[in-house]
Design brief:
- It is a single chain.
- The chain has about 100 residues and is α+β, with helices and mostly antiparallel strands.
- The protein has a single domain, classed as Roll (SH3 type barrels).
- Helices cover about 20% and strands about 40% of the residues.
- The chain has 1 helix and 7 strands, in the order αβββββββ.
- Strands 6-5-4-1-7 form a 5-stranded antiparallel β-sheet. The chain has a two-stranded antiparallel ribbon with strand order 2-3.
- The longest helix is centred in the first third of the chain and has 18 residues.
- The chain is globular, with a radius of gyration of 14 Å.
- The protein starts with a helix and ends with a strand.
C-alpha cells in the first residue's frame, strides 16, 4: 500500500523539480540562462551530456522554454528550446537555468 502511493509521489516530485513556473510546454516553463558569465556562453548540446555535439552558445539572459530534464552521470540536463526560435532545441545543464 505504501509503495503504491510512494512511487507516483516520488515521480511527481522529481518532475516538478525541473518544471519551473509559467507557460511553455507541458512539464516545463519559461526560464533564462544565468551564470555563464559575461565572457562565456552556455553550450546548447544535441543530447544530455558533455559527449554530445554543441549546437550553439547561449549568453546570459537568453530566454528559453524548459521541456523536461534527465540526470546523466550525476548532472541534471534539461531539454530546452529558444523562446525567440522554438524550432531550435537541445540540452543544457540545469545549473545555468533560472526561472523568470
Amino acid at each position: 500500500m505504501i509503495r503504491a502511493i510512494f512511487l507516483p509521489l516520488l515521480a511527481l516530485t522529481l518532475l516538478s523539480g525541473c518544471a519551473g513556473g509559467g507557460g511553455g510546454a507541458i512539464g516545463g516553463g519559461r526560464t533564462v540562462v544565468e551564470g555563464a558569465g559575461p565572457e562565456e556562453l552556455l553550450k546548447l548540446r544535441a543530447g544530455p551530456g558533455l559527449g554530445f555535439r554543441v549546437v550553439l552558445g547561449l549568453p546570459d539572459g537568453t530566454a528559453l522554454y524548459r521541456r523536461d530534464c534527465v540526470t546523466e552521470m550525476g548532472q541534471l540536463w534539461c531539454r530546452v528550446s529558444l523562446a525567440e526560435a522554438p524550432g531550435i532545441t537541445g540540452y543544457v545543464s540545469a545549473d545555468y537555468l533560472s526561472d523568470e
